[in-house]
Amino acid sequence: MVALICQGNRIVQRLVVESPDRLLAKQLILALSNLLPIGCLKVLTYNDTYESKYNLLGGPLDIDIPLDANVLVLRIHAEEPALAANGSLESCRIQVRRRPIPNPRHPRLLDRYKQLLLDSEVHHTVLDATIRSTREHWVSKAKLIYQMSRQKEITPSLNITNVFNVVRGCSEQDRDVLTFWQEGLSKVYKESVIATIHQLPH
């Protein structure tokens, strides 16, 4: 499972699942969507053509993906169709068909997800709860980074790099993940932060 979300030292931001079976593609996409904040998801579980506006997309085996698209492409098929028909991915074989460009930064969230997903002793209900808790924890970090970075408007001397170092458990290596997750913050939340900052004394 780690290979599905962690490629080239980054949490994949755009993924295509190829499958002749719409249900299989949908099941895998929904499983992977649990790793990201809801606001970051742009999902189309199955479509005959590639559309870059979606970051989780399912499609047929012959879906035409532009060569310059920085995307992780997976192919899934069922080795035991009876189990797959019940919505289980346990009998499925997943192949990595294409990898995105590697990123030199190694986010800590990547290590956390690897730790969770590779631990065979963790029961699936515990795994679900822990992934949800981890996701919410990093959403909180993204909110804090957003609040602090927006203050640059009234504090021009604020160094954004220092912002990442101030937040506990974060560093410059987490910038890409937290920047991406900030995109998933609600419009209402962002507007409330900006309104509060504008009320602060300059």
UniProtKB/TrEMBL annotation:
Its recorded name reads: Folliculin DENN domain-containing protein
**By its UniProt entry, which InterPro entries does this protein fall under?**
FLCN_DENN_C_sf, Folliculin, Folliculin_DENN
Q: Which GO terms describe its molecular function?
A: GTPase activator activity
Mention one GO biological process in which this protein takes part, according to its record.
negative regulation of transcription by RNA polymerase II
Limits of the Folliculin DENN domain: 15-192
| GO CC terms, sorted | cytosol
Instruction: Give the superkingdom in one word.
Output: Eukaryota
